[in-house]
């Protein structure tokens, strides 16, 4: 799993083991125990993980933003610290806390401001979801009703879906930031 991310041209900055352990502990105080595959990812990389190439994936259920072939893009994963640009996982959780009510946490940034999320709810814990940020996520005690589409049943399977996209536009969304 970790080698696959490196193969995709991952850029990240190493941080000290003691600092990673402390930050993971801090994160799990907020989220509860994280799935092992995602925890291993955070511990290995530490910082945000960006890619040198356009990286895409095909969800189990296509998102509203997927291209004609059903692919979405991931621009970067949130890390424990930020050494480049973008949010840390802590900042992403804080930003979307009210939207997800801690049933999901954002773990990655997709084109157009959409989010890749990890489910923390016991029934589907560890599954990975695409959130169309223009739709308020709605769920009841049994299932998700709107706003989220299933990408993979666990983080490791999600990583297995990632591939370099040779196409110039893998999604209907256009990434980027506006600075006023």
TrEMBL record:
Pfam families: SMI1_KNR4
Ranges where the Knr4/Smi1-like domain occurs: 28-159
Top-level taxon of the source organism: Bacteria
InterPro entries: Knr4/Smi1-like_dom, Knr4/Smi1-like_sf
Identification of the protein by name: SMI1/KNR4 family protein
Organism name: Citrobacter enshiensis
């Amino acid at each position: 799993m970790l080698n696959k991310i490196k193969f995709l041209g991952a850029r990240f900055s190493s941080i000290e083991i003691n600092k990673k352990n402390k930050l993971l502990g801090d994160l799990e105080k907020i989220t509860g125990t994280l799935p092992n595959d995602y925890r291993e990812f955070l511990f290995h990389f530490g910082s945000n993980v960006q890619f040198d190439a356009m990286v895409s994936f095909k969800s189990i259920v296509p998102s509203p933003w997927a291209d004609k072939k059903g692919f979405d893009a991931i621009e970067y994963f949130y890390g424990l610290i930020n050494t480049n640009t973008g949010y840390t996982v802590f900042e992403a959780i804080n930003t979307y806390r009210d939207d997800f009510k801690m049933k999901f946490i954002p773990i990655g940034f997709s084109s157009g401001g959409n989010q890749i999320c990890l489910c923390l709810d016991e029934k589907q814990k560890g599954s990975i979801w695409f959130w169309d940020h223009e739709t308020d996520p709605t769920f009841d005690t049994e299932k998700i009703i709107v706003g989220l589409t299933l990408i993979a049943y666990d983080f490791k399977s999600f990583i297995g879906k990632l591939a370099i996209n040779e196409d110039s536009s893998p999604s209907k969304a256009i990434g980027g930031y506006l600075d006023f």
